[in-house]
Amino acid sequence: MKTIFKSFLAFAVLIFSLAFTNVNAQTSPKIKNVVLVHGAFADGSGWQGLYKVLTKKGYNVTIVQNPLSSLEDDVQATNLALDKQDGPTILVGHSWGGTVITEAGNHPKVAALVYVAALQPDNGENSVQWLQTAPPAPENGVLPPDEKGIAYYDKAKFHAGFAGDLSKEQADFMYASQGAFHAQGFLTPITKAAWRTKPSYGIVATEDKSIVPSIQYAMYKRSNTKITEIKGSHVVFISQPEKVANVIVEASK
């Protein structure tokens, strides 16, 4: 009887151990590295809130400072950040950063892509093609390129058009810290779209006035990207960092 009881106990322990291991595998992130790529009319400082959320969850977060001088230069800056990662990485892009990660996402360390209110062109397509597929919102303040070919966002429209769910103080700081974006980048085509071979997740900012939601839906549906809707402005990653982090966490599993 003792032998039977011991065998039953050993079997029960084995079953419990397997069950615990399985639950742990389903809940623990497999990927701990995250690289964040900002868009035009912005810089890396906008990621601070999301950085805090992700690092508290145990992620290793790197923020790319795009030179915004060309698509090639921004891809190179992103690749330098990816080179430094110690393993598989989730690559996240906001707005113009979506175009950047579409090209840079071919890096061998990139395991998945996360598009945050972002552009997502295909091979041979450029960013401006998609921006022209729907009328711009009245609040949109992207100005024509100046004599140096640099495009800025209209100061009078920045709050409503770019960061409508942030305080005016936050929006003013973002306006003051925006990079000098060379508009030629919008016209540069993608050579190899990484979303064709890598798992992709896309966040639609439902109150976006810079890239209207219908454009985001069209791109994400075309590429079979997994879509998450978040009520927020173009900078939804600032106003809703926890919700954006949840998508990144999902991608890491």
From TrEMBL:
<dbReference type="InterPro" id="IPR052897">
    <property type="entry name" value="Sec-Metab_Biosynth_Hydrolase"/>
</dbReference>
<feature type="signal peptide">
    <location>
        <begin position="1"/>
        <end position="25"/>
    </location>
</feature>
<dbReference type="Pfam" id="PF12697">
    <property type="entry name" value="Abhydrolase_6"/>
</dbReference>
<dbReference type="InterPro" id="IPR000073">
    <property type="entry name" value="AB_hydrolase_1"/>
</dbReference>
<protein>
    <submittedName>
        <fullName>Pimeloyl-ACP methyl ester carboxylesterase</fullName>
    </submittedName>
</protein>
<feature type="domain" description="AB hydrolase-1">
    <location>
        <begin position="34"/>
        <end position="246"/>
    </location>
</feature>
<dbReference type="InterPro" id="IPR029058">
    <property type="entry name" value="AB_hydrolase_fold"/>
</dbReference>
<keyword id="KW-0732">Signal</keyword>
